[in-house]
TrEMBL record:
This is Uncharacterized protein. Residues 1-25, 43-83 are annotated as: Disordered. Residues 1-21, 43-71 have a biased composition (Basic and acidic residues).
Length: 83
């Protein structure tokens, strides 16, 4: 066993070997939707102040993706509730 390995607790992985999901805050649909709606409102306010055409297009694409995600979350929630 190497020196570095013997110093780590069993099961611990160094940061470079950890999954991106390790530290994620995983939400239910009911938790995610209000957060997404808040993020959309904030992004819409921010987009209104953008004057650079390229930044404006980027903001519009981001908003379109956020609205699409909102639609998917709402459809998922509706399907779950109709069961």
């Amino acid at each position: 066993m190497t020196e570095a390995r013997s110093e780590r607790p069993v099961g611990a992985r160094p940061p470079e070997e950890r999954s991106d999901w390790t530290e994620q805050d995983l939400l239910t649909v009911d938790e995610a939707l209000p957060r997404l709606l808040d993020a959309i409102a904030e992004a819409e306010r921010d987009a209104g102040a953008v004057t650079d055409p390229e930044e404006r297009r980027t903001a519009e694409r981001r908003l379109a993706a956020m609205h699409e995600a909102r639609g998917q979350l709402e459809a998922n929630r509706a399907a779950r509730r109709s069961r």
